[in-house]
Amino acid sequence: MPTTRSRRPVAAALLALLACGAQAQAWPDKPIKLVTPSTPGGPPDVYGRALADQLARELGQAVIVENMPAVGGMIAAQSMARVPADGHTLMVGTAGAMTITPNANPKAQYKPADFTPICQGVEAALVLASHPSLGTRTFNELSQWMKAQKAPPTYSSYAPGSPAHFLGHQLGEALKLDLVHVPYKSSPAQITDMIGGVAPLGFVQIATASPHVKAGKLTAYATTGAQRSPQLPDVPTVAELGLPQLETTVWFGLTGPKGLPPAVVKRLTEAHQKIVASPEFKTRMAVAGLSPSVGLCGDGFLKKMNDETARWGRIVKATGFVADN
User: Fold this and answer.
1) pTM to 2 decimals?
2) Is 14 a residue whose pLDDT tops 60?
3) pLDDT at 146 over 60
4) Which domains are delineated in the chain?
């Protein structure tokens, strides 16, 4: 028969379990803050606000979006280390903030395991495109044109330290060329110079580029998703062109501070999956050129972040890039 002393750990564990269950049942008992590492109207903000609207209905509490766009998402990510792990403060995790910034910015002292991964929400491929003045219609023609240039060809990205920046480095590796990076501070600024012929070649966000491709103002050569983009169905993927190492998407998802109670995580996961499958959410994301993700949650989401952190770490090191604080 167990002694009083031997029963104490069991009783303590049971009390802790009951307390956790009670906390989950009470949650959320006040408004939830959703930190978004984006300016208002930016793609992560579009996802965050659509998620907040429907989460509020699902959970019966207001969900307030707080924009915190500074330093490649670092400020938003590091703020999660200072909040209680009670489910009342969550964050939109982005590919850049979670996997590139920790490699590129020495001040970003965090890694994916320092957060609670809930679910990836949306993703979008990039597109390699150029001004028609290059006179190339296919990727093979483009690669021949690049190799024929006397000076190293230039390519643009919508931000230094972005996937678009590092994809250009990988393209140069694949073609055995030195490519010169021309960084912009936003997607609109990049696309303006591309359609003006100022910076004729670059990796661009599909939502930004596709109207100009369809209007004949840009030529598209390849998209970087696993499947062809519904916005540019006639454009091959990088894998189809024999460049699977360039496959990538820009993604946003729901995360929280480390140590969220399992019952809260379960409820958030169920709510998130219901939301991303809803017609309302799909419609809002389609307008922004974002594709909902279904089923990439928990450990699977964390594995993706870890894998991408390793991938971008190698490329950041190879380029010598250091983020400007």
Assistant:
1) 0.85
2) no
3) yes
4) 28-123+250-319 (3.40.190.150), 125-246 (3.40.190.10)
What type of residue is 225? G
**What is the CB-side half-sphere exposure of residue 35 using CA atoms within 13 A?**
25
How far apart CA 284 and CA 289 sit, in angstroms, is: 9
Strands (DSSP E) along 63-157, which ranges? Answer: 63-67, 89-94, 115-130, 154-157
**CB neighbours of residue 294 within 10 Å:** 13
Contacts 24+ apart (CB under 8 A), 208-215: 208/158, 208/289, 209/127, 209/129, 210/127, 210/289, 212/129, 213/127, 213/129
Bridge partners (DSSP) listed for residue 249: 125
Q: What would the pLDDT profile of 190-217 be if each residue is shown by its tens digit?
A: 999 999 999 999 999 888 899 999 999 9
Which has the closest alpha carbon to 276: 13, 47, 31? 47
Residues in the chain: 325
